[in-house]
Amino acid sequence: MDRLDNTVRPYAWGSTTAIPRLLGTEPTGEPQAEMWMGAHPGAPSRTPRGTLVEVIDADPERELGAEAVAKFGPRLPFLLKILAAGAPLSLQVHPDLAQAREGYAEEERRGVPVDAPDRNYKDANHKPELICALTEFDGLCGFRAPAEAAALLDGLGVDSLKPYVDLLRAQPEDAALREVLTAILTADRAEMADTVTEATAACARLGGPYTPYADMARDYPGDPGVIAAMLLNHVRLQPGEALFLGAGIPHAYLDGLGVEIMANSDNVLRCGLTPKHIDVPELLRVVRFEASDPGVLRPEASPDGEEVYETPIDEFRLSRWVLPGETTRDLTLATPQILLCTAGSVRVGEHGLLPGRSVFVPAGEKAEASGEGTLFRATVIV
To answer: Which positions are catalytic?
Structure first.
């Protein structure tokens, strides 16, 4: 197995302190948003044998196992991250597999450069994801029931929001959510900025359930995404709780530190809270306009102490052990895995892991863990 040397991405929304605190390093003063662990070509993990991309490319069946290669191809199907939000991420959705393939092929046909700022599809893969909180973690996930969204907007007492309130109360669920989100994203920008300013002043005054929207408006003043965010469920995860985000589900992370795992893709369609490109017609094609419960996940414990976060996705499987210190766990699998320590001190094979450190274990390689701490495991289902 190989110890991983991982890249930290300095996105503007990142916390300046959360990842350094986890790693036990001094903050640089710059945002540190995501630490990537895996074989994504944008920032592959490094090993003594080369990047993880190079290691896998040299012998896919040895590293991934024959079953994983047969099912997913000669690549690591998931990307594992430490995510540290100090400000809201963009309000976004991800396509399903058919939409991603169709969108990618269309942009390739039109000759849109893959690094163009107005490109929607960086690859032909879907991007389901799971976020597991390491600290208290705030996010938005899925649409509220239209009546609940109407009550929240109406409570602000802003006249320019009344048409949205009326639509939410008068139309069937799908039509109500579709028409209101479309209206918010296509409204005159200057008029919408005035509405957002008035609405967020009311949020700051009212507090309580309105506080998250006042907070996000400080980072994105006048952004229509602040109003769009009020259509979504606000969720506060406690450490160890998780959210699964499937295709078409609008969501955003607002604040906190977590372990995130996703299919190995970079396809994002944005609704707001961002200066980046927003393609409203394509977004509306992908979004699922249905109210849903956020579905907070708690791990299910197996007899050997593994706590599994169950999802309907085969490209990744996330679990954890809280190791008590007096036992050794055999973690050997027939599938590839990344093991990440998030607390305490853990030994995996010959590698001692402190928080934020990780190893890649090839398929079938012996892996025993001991020590006192928390160890996350990312693998696949074959």
So the answer is: 270
